[in-house]
Design brief:
It contains 14 helices and 15 strands. The chain is of the alpha/beta class and about 450 residues long. The termini are far apart. Bound molecules: nicotinamide-adenine-dinucleotide (NAD) and zinc ion. The site of nicotinamide-adenine-dinucleotide has 30 residues, from helix 3, helix 5, helix 6, strand 12 and helix 7. Pfam families: DHQ_synthase, DHQS_C.
Length: about 450
């Protein structure tokens, strides 16, 4: 059925479907019925549809692109005997074998957050030296204020000076979400797409920024306005980096974890409710004398659930074509709020303020009981997250939701919790409810509340 005739805009249109078949070192269009699938023909998953109308010819190309990437939790990533950082991204066993037996040194270009370099620089350098790697380490102040195209271009200059081989030498990014986002964008621009590896060193980047495909920098005073959907070749996650993260930044990461809990995992919510303080105290580390073995169990359960729930939402929607996304919870109002008060609020803190307000919207809409609302807000306070902010005005909320309408195909697509650990997307929340929720939110939470928890 290669040739089809269809009416289109009142003009007769003939569309022919072609498969693409490899013939020696070239590809040829072949009608489907002429393709010999059982024998020699190597058929591409791509197709070309040729339509001829009175006004001209159109070739429609359907070219499926598959991204394969690994997210690996490992221990001792900078232990010289662990080769994950250098070879863990390679999927072809033959290529791996070839590299192992070759005596050519491995070359790697590494971009690392300046503060992380201060703590882990000696260990990293030793790791590379012992493994006989030819390397360049670029330590940069990758802060939210510096998350710009300018910094991406600085990185690209250095990458170019290193004469990187884009096929064999993935760029390695080590740092928090800012570093990973900037390096990811730089890599996706260099020679149109150079593989890169993410090594998250904050909790937020461990469970969120490392797991998906998004890269970006801030532009025109908007968060992540320039970016690409290009996943890393691999993300290598080692919880031991988190031990040096400040307590405030642990809370920051817990906000994104709480997002996944509220949207789709009641047990994760209960875990955070029960063990949030312990996770803050132990910084997700194992050998904590105060809490012993239970800290290991809670930490590994929490990160595992957060990562798998995140992957469940991202993998089928890597390019965010489906605009109905539960992972957007906490991200409707927070981007302009975060930019407005920069650097006063961290990303996760702004997200939490957004989630806190939305919990009130849910309760006002009859989707959450008063008791459930209280439990969520108490959990947030227990995680030492801000639940209210004076700059989060009704005006900002309304403007954010209007902007959302513009960029989300005319619907607001508001993810809201409907009970603990379940959520749905809503398009019909009225202004009356938004206003009532805002008033109640301010009345109840504006004299907030530092987290207060005893170990
Ligand atoms: N790509 C995505 O899907 C995605 C998802 C979520 C967030 N993000 C982005 O991530 C960014 C926030 O990431 P973040 O919270 O990791 O912030 P960050 O990168 O600014 O890091 C936070 C602070 O911690 C320091 N730091 C990092 N690792 C450390 C360590 N191991 N020990 C001590 N200090 C350490 C950094 O120097 C920095 O001062 C935002 O820009 C956000 O847009 C991206
Ligand atoms: Zn986020």
């Amino acid at each position: 059925m290669g040739k089809v005739s269809q009416k289109n805009n009142d003009t007769e249109e003939n569309t022919t479907e072609f498969n693409l078949v490899r013939v020696k070192s070239t590809w040829k269009c072949k009608l489907p019925q002429k393709v010999n699938k059982d024998t020699v023909d190597c058929v591409s998953p791509a197709k070309i549809y040729e339509s001829i109308t009175e006004t001209g010819t159109t070739w429609t190309v359907v070219s499926p692109i598959i991204f394969t990437y690994k997210v690996t939790e490992t221990q001792g990533l900078l232990d010289p005997s662990n080769n994950t950082l250098l070879l863990g991204h390679i999927t072809d066993p033959q290529q791996l074998e070839d590299i192992k037996i070759s005596n050519k040194p491995i070359r790697r270009f590494i971009v690392i957050d300046q503060e992380v370099f201060k703590i882990y620089g000696i260990k990293l350098t030793k790791y590379l030296e012992v493994n006989n790697v030819v390397y360049k380490i670029l330590a940069l102040p990758t802060t939210e204020e510096n998350k710009s195209m300018e910094m991406a271009l600085n990185i690209l200059n250095e990458v170019n000076n290193f004469s990187l081989d884009r096929r064999m030498e993935p760029i390695i990014a080590i740092g928090g979400g800012v570093c990973l986002d900037i390096v990811g964008l730089a890599a996706s621009l260099y020679r149109r797409r150079t593989p890169y590896i993410r090594v998250p060193t904050t909790l937020l980047s461990y469970i969120d920024a490392s797991v998906g495909a998004k890269t970006g920098v801030n532009f025109a005073n908007c968060k992540n306005k320039l970016g690409a959907y290009i996943p890393p070749a691999a993300a290598f996650l080692d919880l031991s980096f988190i031990q040096t993260v400040s307590r405030r930044h642990i809370s920051n990461g817990l906000a994104e974890m709480l997002k996944m809990a509220l949207m789709k995992h009641r047990s994760l919510f209960e875990l955070l409710e029960k063990h949030g303080c312990m996770l803050l105290d132990t910084k997700f580390q194992v050998d904590n004398s105060l809490y012993g073995h239970s800290s290991l169990k809670a930490a590994s359960q929490a990160t595992r659930i957060a990562i798998t729930t995140m992957l469940e939402e991202l993998a089928p929607n890597l390019w965010e074509d489906d605009l109905n996304r539960l992972v957007d919870f906490g991200h409707l109002i927070s981007p302009p709020l975060e930019m407005k008060v920069l650097p006063a609020l961290l990303h996760g803190e702004a997200v939490n303020i957004d989630m806190s307000y939305m919990v009130y919207v849910s309760q006002e809409s009859g989707l959450l009981t008063e008791e459930e609302k209280q439990r969520i807000i108490s959990c947030m306070v227990g995680l030492e997250l801000p639940v209210w902010h004076e700059e989060c005005t009704l005006e900002l909320i309304e403007k954010s939701l209007q902007d959302r309408l513009k960029h989300s195909g005319g619907l607001v697509r508001m993810p809201l919790p409907v009970g603990l650990g379940q959520a749905e997307i809503f398009n019909n929340i009225s202004y009356e409810i938004l206003h009532r929720a805002y008033k109640k939110w301010c009345d109840e939470l504006s004299i907030s509340s530092d987290g207060n928890c005893d170990p």
